[in-house]
Amino acid sequence: MYFLGLGIVLLLLKWQEIGPVAAWSWWWVLTPFALAAAWWSWADWSGYTKRKAMQREEQRKLDRINRQRTAIGQKPSTAAPRRR
User: Fold this and answer.
1) Which residues contact 1 (CB under 8 A, 6 or more apart)?
2) Does residue 74 carry a pLDDT above 90?
3) pTM of the full predicted structure?
4) How far, in Å, CA of 2 to CA of 17, rounded?
5) Residue 17: is its pLDDT beyond 70?
6) What is the 3-state secondary structure (H, E, C) of the chain?
7) How far apart, in whole angstroms, are the C-alpha atoms of residue 41 and residue 49?
8) Which CA distances in Å does 29 have to 4, 33, 41, 56, 73?
9) How far is CA 53 from CA 3, 14, 30, 49, 59, in A?
10) Chain centroid to CA 78: how far?
């Protein structure tokens, strides 16, 4: 995501001919977009994206369980819920 943001900023600076970026080659300006594509490809290939999504889902589940426990007067749990 950082590469994409950097690419957009550099693209706007090059397009508006602002600062030293105006003199840069288009290859340097477009490189962050290629790096972003490489990162997303690697993240999908390696399972990184899926693992992060599963961690967020587990955290949401634990938060929901803790809110319910607090509502009925029990102590909130710090461990992740057991899988069946």
Assistant:
1) 36
2) no
3) 0.63
4) 22
5) yes
6) CHHHHHHHHHHHHHHCCCHHHHHCCHHHHHHHHHHHHHHHHHHHHHCHHHHHHHHHHHHHHHHHHHHHHHHCCCCCCCCCCCCC
7) 10
8) 11, 9, 20, 34, 57
9) 21, 36, 29, 6, 10
10) 25
Name the residue with tokens 């962050």. Answer: 32
- Specify the length of the chain in residues: 84
Distance CA 75, CA 69 (A): 7
**Residue indicated by tokens 């290629």:** 34
Domain ranges, ordered by start, for the chain: 2-71
Q: How far apart are CA 12 and CA 18, in angstroms?
A: 8
